[in-house]
Amino acid sequence: MKVAMPVLTAGAGLHETLALLTSQLRPDANHTEDMVFLKDVFSERSLGYLMKIHEKLRQYERQSPTPVLHSASSLADDVAEELQSGPMSSEEKELLNLLTSPHLKAVLSVHDTVAQKNFDPVLPPLPDDFEDELDEESVKIVRLVKNKEPLGATIRRDEASGAVIVARIMRGGAADRSGLVHVGDELREVNGVSVIHKRPDEISQLLSQSQGSITLKIIPAIKEEDRLKDSKVYMRALFDYIPLEDKATPCQEAGLPFKRGDILQVVTQDDPTWWQAKRVGDSNLRAGLIPSKLFQERRLAYRIKMGTLPTPQSPKKPPYDQGCDKVSPKCKAVAPSCGQVFSWEFYSAGLRRSFRLSRKDRQGSSGEGSDSEDSDFLTYEEVTRYQQRSNERPRLVVLIGSLGARINELKQRVIAENPHRYAVAVPHTTRPKKPHEKEGVEYHFVTKQQFDTDVLDNKFIEHGEYKENQYGTSIEAIRSVQAKNKMCIVDVQPEALRRLRTSEFKPYIIFVKPRVPESRRRRSAATSPGGGEHSRVTDDDLQEMRQSAIQIDQQYGHFVDRVLIKEDSASACTELKGILERLERESLWVPVSWVRT
User: Fold this and answer.
1) What residues are paired with 565 via a beta bridge?
2) What whole-number distance in Å separates Cα of residue 96 and Cα of residue 102?
């Protein structure tokens, strides 16, 4: 006896079909266990819900609704901006909070994504020789072997064709090392699984889960790009970067974290927004994504415009280690110099408005000053390796210090131990010469008229006035030391760094800061009963020293080549001498503009 099959209408959906199938299961059929299993599966309430959802989606698809607006997010932003332009009522405030809430913004973003996609593309008719063209299509099978590392490639969905395209190849990754996968290649299969109808995130997950060997079916790009050799462009990072905190990066896992001062080898700048780079000295040979210089500058400009970043043009002047002239009985200078020793007796006595060197505006500069690429925003500085040659003048060594560093004393100790190799730039002054002083030894003594003329001619890197006498360090004084094939060591206020960072001097800048204890009580416990350099320092003084170091680091840290933490004078002197010796024999990173011919 034949059993009549259920009659289905033309519009029957999947849920209706399964319901009819369940009702037709015969209890006397063979394979009872299989039938019971099928009946249990089809009777599951959760499956019924899924079928209903499927029917709703099919109904939605048949209706083919069109979006009223393709950019709801932009409209919401415009409304929010308009609301904030004037006083708001309680209803307007409520609307503003609603429009700026993360959940609604996410919903509008999803709406725009769906609205701007054409999910029902109209395909052109197939050509008559379609089969022949299909046979001639170039397909490449690539088999790679990788460990737990990422494949080293990102993908995107082509808007026009819908194909999955290789967007970028990360230098040093498995794909790059193979030389078989190129930007623009179309990805068809991964380990035999078709990816044509998969979302990019599903494909990325499929690739990341594949261990050992991985087989790719690829249609090569029409014009394969030649593999670029490793770039010789090196950049010094002038800011810290954490990819996991950057929402703009196309792939946070592919980002390269770095800190200010790191040297980065930029291996490709093909993408104007995201460069690929490696950290010099890093054992990881795989490149990572970093924001390009232009993109980072635009982001900073936007943050300034929105008020979330302070403007870089007007930083607050930080307190720094500075001396006073020898005219004060309580300020005992170690040796004659433009920057005098900072006396703790003088400091703790309360005279905190000591002699401060000042720089005049140099609008009419004759071209002297920093010749590296200056920018209002601290992003990257292109650098290269440089080692002093035997026929070149020694590099200038510049010391800057936070409060309490006593850099002048440190400088004088190093010079006194080896006066044949190191020397100071003899400063100029309008003060009358004392009987024991010699011209060009302690000071260059000049008239006030001559000093003012030199100031107007921008001959001083810094200058100032103390008790109606002028003092200053000139460019020629530095050149005079270098002409004797000696290494000139100067201590200046941080504002003078821009004037000294030139290809002529190639300065090596050392930031000296004292190790500051948490409190005076702890410092006293670690100090001998006889006292020491910091024996009369209060907790307020210690806090001011800490704040000074922080502010100098924030405003001038990108100029600094080395930070010297001063525990005591003897150890700091030993460390400084080691730095100076390495400076003469080792190659170091300098701005590329300093060595270009």
Assistant:
1) 513
2) 12
